[in-house]
Amino acid sequence: xxxxxxxxxxxxxxxxxxxxxxxxxxxxxxxxxxxxxxxxxxxxxxxxxxxxxxxxxxxxxxxxxxxxxxxxxxxxxxxxxxxxxxxxxxxxxxxxxxxxxxxxxxxxxxxxxxxxxxxxxxxxxxxxxxxxxxxxxxxxxxxxxxxxxxxxxxxxxxxxxxxxxxxxxxxxxxxxxxxxxxxxxxxxxxxxxxxxxxxxxxxxxxxxxxxxxxxxxxxxxxxxxxxxxxxxxxxxxxxxxxxxxxxxxxxxxxxxxxxxxxxxxxxxxxxxxx
Length: 274
Description:
The protein is mainly alpha-helical. The chain is about 75% helix and about 0% strand. The chain has 11 helices and no strands. It has helices spanning about 1-10, 25-45, 45-70, 75-95, 100-120, 130-145, 155-170, 185-210, 215-235, 245-255, 260-274. The longest helix has 25 residues, at about 185-210. The radius of gyration is 19 Å and the shape is globular. About 50% of the residues are buried.
């Protein structure tokens, strides 16, 4: 009764109390492992390994996206996400270096599938806007992951992926601040730490294993570490994060979202070389 009373008083004052244990260490560990695996596979420099590694990560995101966000029409929405995985990865498997040329069309097909699913629903379509926007967000994360495929074929791209994945892995150390009061000292300190750790890890790992010259490396590492941490921070307060599938989706999504950062870093590096 005292907990309910204090919670009610906090809400009445406009200060809702945060969850007691919003941080899920399992999410941090899975994110760390996914980033390490993708970084090691990218360092091998072969699409034979990067595509299966990405496929597994993307499927984990797709099957956990609905439980994570508790979306309506769970079966159909999950099928749409799995269709997006297939549509995005097939061109990457057949023509790795032309992946990004096919990416707009693949994203369009995935979004059309999402809208067709909404038209086919027979449940009066509750939470329609939420369902469509969440499906689009899932497709966006999957599209970011596919950006890694063509990068492993060039020295700049391979080093960019390794550096960005190192940044995402290092940022998991700051997860002790997940779910804290947004303006609290711990939350702010950990958010800053995720950027600093990401930048530092990218520079150190590239210095140890990289061959190509990567301008703006520290900036890209900081963005990758900060964005990875930020996505886990946003999702850390979701009550659905108790579930295993939701935890897998949160962890893999926070790593796959850095694919676009790796591509941007490689693009800048190619421009500097030219």
